[in-house]
Amino acid sequence: MVETFLGRFHFHFDNRRLDFKRWISALISSHKTLFTVLWIVAFASIFVWQRSIVDGLRIFGRAHPARPIPRLRPVAFNLTDFGGVGDGVTVNTEAFERAVTAISKLGSRGGGQLNVQPGRWLTGPFNLTSHMTLFLAEDAVILGIQDEKLWPLMPPLPSYGYGREHPGPRYGSLIHGQNLKDVVITGHNGTIDGQGQAWWVKYRQKLLNHTRGPLVQIMFSRDIQISNITLRNSPFWTFHPYDCKNVIIKNVTILAPIFEAPNTDGIDPGEYALFMFFLTVYQFLLFNK
Ligand SMILES: *[C@@H]1O[C@H](CO)[C@@H](O)[C@H](O)[C@H]1NC(C)=O
Ligand SMILES: *[C@@H]1O[C@H](CO)[C@@H](O)[C@H](O)[C@H]1NC(C)=O
Ligand SMILES: *[C@@H]1O[C@H](CO)[C@@H](O)[C@H](O)[C@H]1NC(C)=O
Ligand SMILES: *[C@@H]1O[C@H](CO)[C@@H](O)[C@H](O)[C@H]1NC(C)=O
Ligand SMILES: *[C@@H]1O[C@H](CO)[C@@H](O)[C@H](O)[C@H]1NC(C)=O
Ligand SMILES: *[C@@H]1O[C@H](CO)[C@@H](O)[C@H](O)[C@H]1NC(C)=O
Predict the structure, then answer these.
(1) How many domains does the chain have?
(2) From the CA of 47, how far away is ligand 1's center (Å)?
């Protein structure tokens, strides 16, 4: 009897427990579903909110008029006037070359200014000319092309007589100048980015057959001014004035990762006669992402 009673009781209890369990698990699973839905909604709304903050900032940024580019030479051009496209993909080497050719004809009239507007302007190496101002707007980035086949070779530096890393010719610099006078590279803290990462990896893996090129190299020239810009991730030395007179460097930021960026020296003056540094902002070898 007792056993039966207990058995029945157990039976009933088990039944109830089963019901209760089912009810609980249904509740839990519906809660789970609800919770999952709520979680997705919350996550999505945070995501949308974040996006709108970013967009808001972008819109906010755009709402501010772009800082007007000052006129520093009698004649000024935009890189777009020469077919430049700042989409980070189009190669602008020829646009830069056309601009430099146009400015080279203005020397007797005080020279010319080339404005690089906000955007990402991919380019292979190009040469500057005398009486030229290269002006990089805020958020203008000149990007060095990473394919070394598009980097012309040059004779080794006279002081070495051979390539610094390999015998024979060396890669030229991304922005180069020789036998020039009165050259200014300035801006509203725009950037010349050598995209050196690919070069550093190839250098370490011994895949390069020639010495890497500097980011900006000016040789046998005078009256050179580099100011108010950022130079970053050079394949090799960052700024290399060689056998130049009256070089002024002012308010320039130089960035490269501390590790894994071999020989990306900031400024390597070589064989100079008269040289002046005015580095009010000089961050050399900083981490960057
Ligand atoms: C360069 O472009 C700006 C607009 O971004 C325009 O206001 C200016 O007139 C242009 N300058 C030249 C020289 O074409
Ligand atoms: C720049 O000029 C130098 C000297 O004339 C020349 O060796 C070099 O190939 C030129 N670089 C480019 C990219 O045209
Ligand atoms: C340095 O450059 C920044 C960014 O373009 C500018 O705001 C600042 O006025 C410059 N400082 C000097 C001393 O020229
Ligand atoms: C210029 O830009 C660089 C990199 O974007 C930044 O690190 C530096 O602080 C800026 N300089 C000034 C003076 O705003
Ligand atoms: C280096 O030279 C080797 C052998 O001539 C060639 O196969 C290779 O493509 C060259 N590498 C570069 C980056 O030019
Ligand atoms: C640097 O930028 C500041 C602020 O725009 C300007 O006052 C100064 O004249 C510039 N200096 C040089 C050397 O370009």
Answers:
(1) 2
(2) 37
